[in-house]
């Protein structure tokens, strides 16, 4: 259950699409583990009346998604290694002989264009990631 100021946003369909995409890309047997997740949203006042919380219930409001993105932006990412007196850029954190060959004689801008960070790139492009 999402407690939000905008409960009419399509949280359930968004998560259903995420689950469907995950199932298609991983092609792993998941059974009904993910499909059994029910997602709904409500505003805080409705949540409080449904759960019969007294008015003295002290609740902190914390933006979990923003916190998670900020946490991930603190994780150092290795973009290259020095090996045998050479600078070897990594592709998604992995050494690739093909990438290394393609960058022979490349200038700095070409190397920068080839560096990728895998799933971190979507976080970096997010509106929430202001400090990377």
Describe it for me?
This protein is mainly α. The chain has two domains: 2-61, no CATH class; 80-116, no CATH class. The chain is built from six helices and four strands, in the order βαβααββααα. It has helices at residues 11-26, 44-50, 64-72, 97-102, 108-114, 120-124, and strands spanning 2-3, 41-42, 80-83, 86-89. A two-stranded parallel sheet has the order 1-2. A two-stranded antiparallel sheet has the order 3-4. A hairpin with a 2-residue loop joins β3 (80-83) and β4. The protein is elongated and about 65 Å long. The two termini are 30 Å apart.
In short:
By secondary structure, the protein is mostly helical. It contains six helices and four strands. The chain folds into two domains: 2-61, no CATH class; 80-116, no CATH class.
Mean pLDDT: 77
Number of domains: 2
Largest sheet report: 2 strands, parallel
Name the structural class.
Answer: mainly alpha
Beta-strand content bin: 5-15%
Q: Helicity, in percent?
A: 25-40%
Order of helices and strands: EHEHHEEHHH
What's the β-strand tally? 4
- Overall geometry: elongated
As laid out across the biggest beta sheet, the strand order is: 1-2
Task: Provide the descriptors you would attach to this structure in a database record.
mainly alpha, 38% helix, 132 residues
List the helices and strands and how they pair.
Layout lengths: L1 E2 L7 H16 L14 E2 L1 H7 L13 H9 L7 E4 L2 E4 L7 H6 L5 H7 L5 H5 L8
Parallel strand pairs: 1-2
Antiparallel strand pairs: 3-4
